[in-house]
């Protein structure tokens, strides 16, 4: 569950990236965030995983008020949010297995569990056989599947995906979207920013459009709504 109450974000240079965002995303929803370049989508996502802090307003994730979080609760809340980026952000010197396992090591999961769970999620994304490769030895779609495995390995309830298919060809894009749908089906809430009209208009979900830092549209089974 994600809630925002009158959330504003002004960057240090004076840019008003978000201007009074109010919304509620329920558990297990799948939401697309659409809007023109520079509208505030990435800023909106960064506030949810606490990469940026709001200038004003309250943000709740799974009932925790991110602005009033006790320091000892921060790792717990972070672990419950998996993040996926357009450029994968894998560690180039670590193998596929190590990239995914690393996310469990930082939360000090038991070694045995790390091995079992890492291979489990690599199987889910279809990469168990390639666990010993380095990221550069994989295609873009495979690298994104590793990033997805890393995002879900700690079983987060929320997945934030910022243009996860932005660098991929159409076939690979659909593979990644099937995977996102599967993860949603298994119980995670998904918030995904995208410029991909075809995905949004084919895999119908809730669509929230942001323009100039404000929500201008919020529709169940909505459409992309922009010409590209
Ligand atoms: N760190 C920053 N410092 C200053 N301004 C920023 C920063 N990050 C983003 N902005 C500005 O905030 C506004 C919103 O940017 P944001 O990246 O959230 O947009 P976006 O909708 O994700 O765009 P895109 O679709 O191009 O990724 C833009 O005007 C951008 O230039």
Describe this structure as you would to a colleague.
Keywords: ATP-binding, Cell cycle, Cell division, Cell membrane, Membrane, Nucleotide-binding. It contains 7 helices and 10 strands. The chain is globular and about 45 Å long. With 228 residues, the chain is of the alpha/beta class. The structure holds adenosine-5'-triphosphate. Adenosine-5'-triphosphate is lined by residues 11, 13, 15, 17, 35, 37-43.
Write the SSE topology.
Blueprint: E1 2-10, E2 16-25, E3 30-34, H1 41-48, E4 56-61, E5 64-65, H2 74-79, E6 81-85, H3 96-105, H4 111-124, H5 140-152, E7 158-162, H6 170-185, E8 189-193, H7 197-202, E9 206-211, E10 214-219
Parallel strand pairs: 3-8, 3-9, 6-7, 7-8
Antiparallel strand pairs: 1-2, 1-4, 4-5, 9-10
Helix pairs in contact: 3-4, 3-5, 4-5, 5-6
Bound molecules: adenosine-5'-triphosphate.
Adenosine-5'-triphosphate (ATP) binds at residues 11, 13, 15, 17, 35, 37-43.
